[in-house]
Each structure stands twice: as structure tokens, then as C-alpha cells.
Amino acid sequence: MKKTAIASMITAFVLAGAVWIAPAWTADEARPTLPYDDAVRVAEGKALYAEYCASCHGANLEGQQPNWQDRDADGYLPAPPHDASGHTWHHDNALLMRIVREGTEAIVGGTYKSNMIGFGDVLTDDEIASVLGYIKSTWPAEIQGIHNEINTRVLP
Fold first, then answer.
1. Which residues have a Cβ under 8 Å from the Cβ of 64 and sit 6 or more positions away?
2. HEC sequence for 31-83
3. Which of 22, 59, 114, 126 is packed most tightly, with the most Cβ within 10 A?
4. Closest alpha carbon to 45 in 134, 139, 125, 137
């Protein structure tokens, strides 16, 4: 009972915060999808993740280090986890695709410092979607549902 109440509070908080965490869609935008329920694409994504992402984000999506939210002496954040303990699922598909394609500094701008490079010259959009689909496939069903809800928000 207590676990359910806590999960409900977290869900409500995340859904309320998703409006500002992730950019909402406009009615005429194409919505990228992540193939998290396609076994072939998930397998492809897992292999690509192992090749391009695991060295920083961990072989088990655990992140670079436990204190991934603390900047180092040079002002860089460690690579965050992509499992349910991280914040990847707080962002909509389009933003996740852009982060992987362009790199975090290009997306955030200003003086934001990140070691996350863009992979747009290395991976196709379909390959990036497969990697993200693999990551999403590892999240619990409840978090997948929250992430799906984030991706349905539309601005007029």
C-alpha cells in the first residue's frame, strides 16, 4: 500500500514537471518513436549501446559513478545512468534524439559543460532510435507508461 502511494506521488510529480522538463509537441510536428517493443530493433540498440555508450554510461546503464549529479573540479557532470534511477525517462523522444545526435552542450547552450558529444555523424537517426529503444526497454512498465505520457503532450 505504501509503495503504491509513493509511486503515485512520483508519477504525479513527474507528469506535472514534464511540462517544463521536456518541450511539448506542437500539433503539426512529427513525433519520433522509440522501438522499445521491437525485439530486432532493441537487439540492434543494445549492440550499438555497448559499442558507443557503455564506456561512459555503464554496461548496465548504471552511469559513470554513483554521484552523477555532482560536477567535477572542471565543472563537468559524470555520465548519468539510463536505467530507472536516472533522468533519461523524464525527457520526450525528440529531445533525447537531439541530445544523442547533437550532444548536450549544443542543446543546452550557454556555458553548460558536458562530455556528451553528438553522434549524428556516426549513427543514423534510426540507429539512435534503436539505442534509445533499447534503453527504454529496460525500464519498468510504470516508467515506460510515464514516458509514453510525456510524449503525448501537445501544444496548440
1. 56, 57, 58, 78, 79, 80
2. CCCCCCCCHHHHHHHHHHHHHHCHHHHCCCCCCCCCCCCCCCCCCCCCCCCCC
3. 22
4. 134
Task: State how far the Cα of 42 lies from the Cα of 20, in Å rounded to an integer.
Answer: 29
Amino acid letter, 7: A
3-class SS at 103?
A: strand
pTM higher than 0.85: no
pLDDT of residue 19: 35
The whole-angstrom separation of Cα 6 and Cα 135 is 24
Question: What are the cell numbers at 17?
Answer: 514537471
pLDDT (tens digit per residue) in 111-132 = 888 899 999 999 999 999 999 9
Task: Report DSSP state, residue 108.
Answer: H
pLDDT (0 to 100) of residue 145: 95
The pLDDT tens digits of the residues spanning 3-37 come to 554 444 444 444 444 333 345 444 545 678 899 99
Q: Return d(Cα 150, Cα 144) in angstroms, integer.
A: 10
- Residue written as cell 510504470? 142
Q: Are residues 128 and 45 in contact, defined by beta-carbon separation less than 8 angstroms? A: no
Expressed in percent and rounded to 5, the helix, strand and coil fractions of the chain are 50, 5, 45
